[in-house]
Write a structure and sequence with these properties.
This protein is of the alpha+beta class. The protein is 20% helix and 30% strand. The chain has a 4-stranded mixed sheet, with no helix packed on it. A 4-stranded antiparallel sheet has the order 4-3-6-7, with no helix packed on it. It starts with a helix and ends with a helix. Mean pLDDT is 82; it is low at 224-230.
Length: 230
């Protein structure tokens, strides 16, 4: 009644259905684990200089260098289904008034980021052999290591500088640093910062610095000396 091909198709269809249901249950289990992330961030040094912010830049422009200190507890974001956690800090400021010479409508720039892996995905870490060996040793016998979600950075140097399409960014007001995260599970959907509480998942406590202003353009020593001598 049934040939071999039909039987194989039936078995494969049953297998994929079971696999899909199991994957859906695993993804749904994330909602049962509480999330209570928190962070405190503040600036330690802010400068605006003029030059080529990137090696590929074709012209000189103003760019901001923002150092910061960060204390964050993201340990609750690590569960048995967490593959890795992407953490990043953005500098954000309001859109300029209508009619101003401003082509950028988002006013958001990433200044620092990091990928924190769970013990089961350490092999994906972009680390050297010595660092990777140390990381694996610290997580020996663990399937979950929430301590990796605890960050303490002091006077951290930014990975990226802030620029603007107009080439001018000095003396920008009401700038704030925001701590952001993206949870990447083994199975399920990617999740980002929450703007509101969702069941056992709570929005981040803190994570925003006090407003500050970018300073005036920093002059080079040679330029400052030449102006004084005139």
């Amino acid at each position: 009644m049934y040939n071999s091909l039909t039987r194989i198709q039936n078995v494969f269809g049953f297998f994929t259905t079971v696999a899909f249901v199991v994957a859906a249950l695993i993804a749904a289990s994330d909602f049962t684990a509480p999330r209570t992330p928190s962070a405190t961030i503040k600036t330690t040094n802010v400068q605006v200089v003029k030059g080529r912010p990137h090696y590929y830049s074709t012209k000189k422009e103003e760019y901001a260098i923002i150092r910061f200190s960060l204390d964050a507890d993201l340990s609750s974001l690590f569960t048995w289904n967490t593959k890795q956690l992407f953490v990043y800090v953005t500098a954000e400021w309001p859109v300029a008034p209508a009619g101003a010479d401003n082509m950028n409508q988002t006013n958001k720039a990433v200044i620092w980021d990091a990928i924190i892996t769970s013990p089961s995905s350490d092999h994906l870490s972009n680390l050297g052999p010595a660092s990777l060996k140390k990381l694996r040793k610290s997580a020996a016998g663990k399937t979950i290591d929430p301590s990796r979600g605890k960050l303490s950075l002091k006077n951290q140097k930014p990975k990226y500088q802030i620029t603007h399409p107009t080439g001018r960014i000095a003396e920008t007001d009401d700038v704030k640093l925001h701590v952001n995260y993206n949870v990447q599970p083994w199975v399920g959907i990617l999740t980002w910062n929450q703007a509101f509480d969702l069941g056992r998942w709570k929005k981040m406590a803190g994570g925003v610095s006090k407003a500050f202003a970018l300073p005036a353009l920093k002059k080079k020593d040679g330029e400052a000396t030449a102006k004084k001598s005139r």
